[in-house]
Prior knowledge:
Elements: H1 7-18, H2 24-35, H3 37-43, E1 45-48, H4 63-73, E2 79-83, H5 91-103, E3 109-111, H6 119-128, E4 137-139, H7 146-157, E5 165-167, H8 175-185, E6 193-195, H9 207-218, E7 224-226, H10 234-244, E8 252-254, H11 262-274, E9 280-282, H12 289-302, E10 309-311, H13 319-331, E11 337-339, H14 347-358, E12 369-374, E13 377-382
Parallel strand pairs: 1-2, 2-3, 3-4, 4-5, 5-6, 6-7, 7-8, 8-9, 9-10, 10-11
Antiparallel strand pairs: 12-13
Helix pairs in contact: 1-2, 1-4, 4-5, 5-6, 6-7, 7-8, 8-9, 9-10, 10-11, 11-12, 12-13, 13-14
Amino acid sequence: MSVRSxxxxxxxxxxxxxxxxxxxxxxxxxxxxxxxxxIIWTKGFTLxxxxxxxxxxxxxxxxxxxxVLVSVLHTAAFVTGLDLRYNVLTxxxxxxxxxxxxxxxxxxxxxxxxxxIGTSGAELIAKALHGNETLLHMRMTGNKIGxxxxxxxxxxxxxxxxxxxxxxxxxxxxxxxxxATATALNQNKSVKAINLNRPLLFSQEEETTVHLALMLKxxxxxxxxxxxxxEMKDFGVERLCEALYxxxxxxxxDLAxxxxxxxxxxxxxxxxxWNQTLQILDLNANRIENDGAxxxxxxxxxxxxxLQALSVVSNNISGKGLVALSDAMRTNTELSCIYIxxxxxxEATCMAxxxxxxxGRLKLNCTDVExxxxxxxIYLAELSHGLQKHYYWTxxxxxxxxxxxxxxxAIAAVSEY
Length: 417
């Protein structure tokens, strides 16, 4: 065993020095990492210490465990990623991590999603990123940092010029944080992907959407934008579309779980006739109905040759609209991924998508339906595929290689992290 990456032995020694008991899950992960010494030394390595792993017995990482772990990682420059999702880290653990970020010069990916970090922990981590020049991807997803905690990250975006991807989804941020983030992104040239899903909004006036739309007019670096569960209606979609006529960088737009109707999709249809940048459009769980599907299909069949993935899951679309989308795929060879489950399938719909799959135009790993036959009739069964498949959960036992199943910059990648 090379001494260059004897992480486990170092971990045992630090535990003894600090008088801390060993965490068997951390010990197991470090032992596995040591087995790949030559690979991680040359290419870098992500330590996956996810508390939701089902492969081995998991003892979730505590604040004290993290203190020991970062002591080990101080001398492990080949560790370029750290996955600590679904553990029990609190603001005390955030303080340890903030100190580590200030001193570390090799970490490029940090995943802290769904721990117990609050406002004060968010402040410490965000301020640590003021001077950090190596971290590219930060996930705070599901930590209840609130409005104040989100404001610290918005302020960080005015200073940090390295971070490329930031996820603040499910963090209970609000109007002030969204507005401040949009303002920061007017000037920030490094952020390429941001997730602002499920804020806590107490207004129906969509002022946050207006601010984000104004940002898109000025920002030329943002590639991916997630605005899921923003209570967005047709007015907000119209503002975003107006902005996107002046934007030539955005490739992934997530508008899932909003209140968009056929009238809002009419603006998206017009945009797609002109836009040559968008590659992924997620309209999952809105209410675009047949008319909205037809607006999209007209744009895709006759004009747009850029969009690669479209999700219209659970949009109250019936046969007429779904068949129109299938017809668009026959003429548009660029659209390769389409997700339609949760709508109203009739016999014509089942036949249309069955033919697309049988002729090889639509691959099963690029859609969420699979045809089957009973008594001479074709039906569609659900497949567990979709643009959000691996947002909350990523398998530990194999690498996610299917670009269509990843919620992040999978089709339009920025970097590995």
